[in-house]
Specification:
Layout lengths: L3 E3 L29 H18 L10 H31 L4 H21 L2 H7 L2 H9 L7 H8 L8 H14 L1 H13 L4 E3 L5 E3 L2 H7 L5 H17 L1 H21 L5 H7 L5 H13 L1 H15 L23 H12 L4 H12 L3 E2 L11 E3 L8 E3 L6 H23 L2 H4 L3 H22 L3 H37 L6 H15 L30 H18 L3 H13 L5 H7 L8 H23 L1
Parallel strand pairs: 4-6
Antiparallel strand pairs: 1-5, 2-3, 5-6
Helix pairs in contact: 1-2, 1-3, 2-3, 8-11, 11-12, 11-20, 13-20, 14-25, 15-17, 15-19, 17-19, 19-22, 20-21, 20-22, 20-25, 22-25, 23-24
The structure holds zinc ion (ZN).
């Protein structure tokens, strides 16, 4: 899969066309291919490499030298396909109204499918080499560079079945997406969302997007009306939703069982070699940190002037929004100053990125919304898409995407292609670390109490939504899989009951922090991520790891900085947990959580003081 890290999707609202933007604020796509003709020529080269590769079939087990030679050929093919599709995607994303991008994208997509088929024999053939023989291969210098790559295939030997069984398993793959597809159709197309009448007399027909807008309504009666109506819509279909969720849990169960894993969690995490203890430690540690969330929620209740905080009050903003303008060019300087603790070599990469036009800055007509970084053009440079909007959020997104870009640049520079692709578990660490360094820099320098309050308020909200809310989701996901494994049917009642209990525990109902209306227990039906097979915990682990890293680096710990940079350079040459360990963060232990919660506590203390002195 080409490596594109896709971040927030926001509406661009573009009024300008591409030719109205200065060249220096547009990415230099010619660095990929000087012309369409050059792209065609490289495609022809890819086709001939693919034909030549067929000669490797049946020969991988012959000798270490032969295996290394074939793997080199395979790498060259994949690398070329990535660069070709990178060009097509960038062209398409910068302006969808230009059809060339779409055409090239479709063509290279089909080549990609053929490529996967042409390379499909590699893994089974490596697995078929007798372990003892493969071990002697691995002693040889010819193959030394591929040790991690090969280990990543053979480590799952015990979970791979015979070729005919594998074929049957693969066929079941077609059924695997059914629950999610139906879920999406039901939620986005069929679910009849109600109308809500607001206190000013206006009415709005809800949708998912409008729910996220109006759940933070300033008028409490409006918020409650939105929550009551929105969750009623899901309640009306809760048995159907329960059926779909039960379907996806059975799918995960099936895969865990046919591949002889002890649990669904183990099966899911083994795909990227993450031990299950990372998951359970995360839940334990976040649970232990709940008193800080409760302290924040009590402050929220006080600032909102409420006698009782309800679940429908959580999105209401406690701090009036303040005008903070950050135009791109000055913002770039602020980001560079914020990242200075990462050292001169890192800053040099950021400057190079600005000078060599890695970034497409402004929203324009036909351009893709949101922001992302693509680092898949291994021997070119990373590309960053932004829709820069002159506010703090845009500046923070710039720092975030440049975190991904710095990571890709360093891993592409220091690792061979097959070891350059870093795992998803560490991907967001590089970006959130930059975001956090920016926040520490800006908040620390801000003298205006209102702006400082706003920044601290936003930060604490991100703790609530990224750490606590995601940990709750992760725990719910684990529990429903465990219940299914124990033979309990996942009925709507059981799902509601399990979810409601978690809401009450996380938001401190028993301690008088936040009251949960049982009407909202159906929220589980709203979260599409429960269909992604144990994915969400990484939002929390990434946030915690980056917070710990940024806190040390911002404090001037050069040892921590060097350790972190060595992780960035290591790319995907090691397994996820080892990579974070290189950066000085052991996610199997409580330590990073302790450091991160200190950062939250510090922000809380600061905001409480500011509120007192107002
Ligand atoms: Zn990201």
């Amino acid at each position: 899969m080409p490596r594109v890290v896709l971040d927030s999707e926001r509406t661009a609202g573009a009024t300008r066309t591409r030719d109205q933007i200065e060249l220096k604020h547009k990415w230099k796509i010619e660095d990929l291919y000087a012309s369409e003709g050059a792209w065609e020529k490289d495609l022809a080269e890819l086709e001939s490499e693919m034909r030549a590769f067929a000669r490797c079939k049946g020969k991988l087990g012959k000798s270490a030298k032969q295996l290394a030679k074939c793997l080199d050929q395979q790498l060259s093919i994949v690398k070329r396909q990535y660069r070709l599709s990178n060009y097509a995607s960038r062209l398409h994303d910068q302006d969808a109204s230009v059809t060339l991008g779409q055409q090239l994208y479709e063509r290279i997509g089909k080549v990609g499918t053929r490529m996967s088929a042409a390379l499909a024999f590699v893994e089974p053939e490596i697995l078929a080499i007798p372990p003892k023989k493969l071990d002697t291969f691995l002693q040889s210098n010819a193959i030394a560079d591929y040790r991690h790559y090969i280990d990543n295939i053979t480590r799952r030997r015990a979970h791979v079945r015979s070729p005919s069984e594998e074929e049957i398993i693969a066929r079941a793959g077609d059924l695997a997406d059914v629950p999610y597809n139906v879920y999406q159709t039901l939620s986005t197309l069929n679910l009849p969302f109600p109308e809500v009448k607001f206190s000013d007399g206006s009415t709005v027909k809800l949708s998912q997007a409008l729910y996220t807008r109006y759940r933070s309504a300033a008028d409490r009666a409006d918020r409650i009306a939105v929550f009551q109506a929105f969750w009623q819509a899901y309640r009306d279909f809760r048995e159907s939703y329960a059926g779909l969720l039960a379907g996806v849990v059975s799918r995960d169960r099936y895969h865990a069982e046919v591949r002889s894993y002890k649990s669904d969690l183990e099966a899911a995490l083994d795909a990227t070699c993450v031990p299950t203890s990372i998951y359970t430690t995360m839940i334990e540690q976040v649970r232990a940190g709940r008193p800080l969330l409760w302290r924040y929620l009590k402050l929220k209740k006080k600032l909102l002037g409420l006698a009782e905080l309800g679940y429908h009050d959580l999105y209401a903003s406690i701090i009036p929004s303040v005008e903070m303008k950050y135009e791109f060019v000055p913002a770039r300087e602020i980001v560079l100053a914020a990242l200075a603790p990462l050292g001169p070599d890192y800053i040099a990469i950021m400057k190079k990125a600005f000078e060599e036009r890695w970034t497409d800055v402004y929203p324009t007509k036909g351009k893709r919304s949101g922001a992302y970084m693509s680092g898949s053009a291994y021997d070119v440079h990373p590309f960053v898409l932004l829709n820069y909007n002159d506010d703090y959020d845009s500046m923070s997104t710039l720092a975030h995407e440049f975190g991904h870009a710095g990571h890709s640049f360093l891993s592409n520079k220091h690792q061979r292609f097959h070891n350059s692709r870093y795992p998803i578990f560490v991907a967001e660490v590089a970006s959130i670390t930059n975001e956090d360094l920016l926040r520490l820099h800006v908040t620390g320098a801000e003298r205006d109490a209102k702006k400082k309050l706003f920044l601290l308020g936003e930060y604490l909200e991100s703790w609530r939504t990224t750490v606590f809310r995601q940990a709750l989701f992760a725990e719910f996901e684990l529990r429903i899989h465990e219940m299914a494994q124990a033979g309990k049917p996942l009925t709507a009642d059981l799902l509601d009951e399990t979810y409601l209990a978690l809401l009450r525990e996380y938001y401190g109902e028993a301690d008088g922090v936040c009251k949960i209306d049982p009407h909202y227990a159906v929220e589980w039906a709203y979260i599409p991520h429960f269909f992604y097979n144990f994915y969400m915990f990484q939002y929390t682990t990434s946030f915690i790891a980056s917070t710990a890293i940024a806190r040390r680096i911002h404090g001037g710990d050069t040892g921590a900085r060097d350790a972190y940079l060595s992780m960035l350079r290591a790319g995907g040459s090691r397994y996820p947990v080892e990579l974070l360990e290189m950066a000085g963060v052991d996610m199997r232990s409580a330590e990073p959580y302790k450091i991160a919660f200190e950062a939250m506590e510090q922000a809380l203390t600061e905001i409480e003081k500011l509120v007192e002195s107002k």
